[in-house]
Amino acid sequence: MDYQRAQQIVTSPKEYEVSYNGVSVWIDKLHEDGKTATVHLRRSLEEKSEVTIDELKEEYLVQ
């Protein structure tokens, strides 16, 4: 995923399915460097990680 698409997903009122290494995540914050983001597992708000945006994958739109 690129930074622009990640930004669109974060600011959208719609809910998108995003994965990191095959695991469903929420994008919490995009970092100013334009290359990294803070994400957390959809099942656990406590497990946050900083990842590179290009490792995020948009799976499908959740209806």
Describe the model.
One of its GO terms (biological process) is asexual sporulation. With 63 residues, the chain is mainly β. The chain has one domain (3-61): Roll (SH3 type barrels), CATH 2.30.30. Helix content is 14%, strand content 48%. It has one helix and five strands. The protein has a five-stranded antiparallel β-sheet with strand order 4-3-2-1-5.
In total, the number of strands is: 5
Helicity, as a percent range: 10-25%
Main beta sheet strand tally, sense and closure: 5 strands, antiparallel
Shape descriptor: globular
The overall number of domains is 1
C-alpha Rg, in Å? Answer: 11 Å
**CATH classification, class level:** Mainly Beta
Task: Tell me, rounded to a whole number, the average pLDDT.
Answer: 91
Low-confidence stretches: none
Tally the helices: what do you get?
Answer: 1
What is the CA–CA distance across the termini?
21 Å
Strand-residue proportion: over 45%
Secondary-structure element series:
HEEEEE
CATH architecture: Roll
Major β-sheet strand ordering: 4-3-2-1-5
CATH fold category name? SH3 type barrels
Class derived from helix and strand content: mainly beta
